[in-house]
Amino acid sequence: MQTIGIVSPGAMGSGVASALIRGGARVVATLAGRSARTEALAGRAEVEVLQDLATVVREADVILSIVPPGVAESVGTEILHVAREEPRPPLFVELNAISPATALALEDEAPHGLDVVDGSISGPPPWRAGTTRIYLSGRRAQRVAELPFDGVDRIVVGDAVGAASAVKMSTASVYKGSTALLAQALLAANAHGVVEHVVADLRLGAPDLVGSVERRLAMAASKSSRYVDEMREIAATQASVGLVPELFETIADVYAAVARTPLAEASPEVVPTDLALEQVLDQLNPRRTNVGR
Question: What pLDDT, on a 0 to 100 scale, did the predictor assign at position 110?
Answer without folding.
Answer: 92
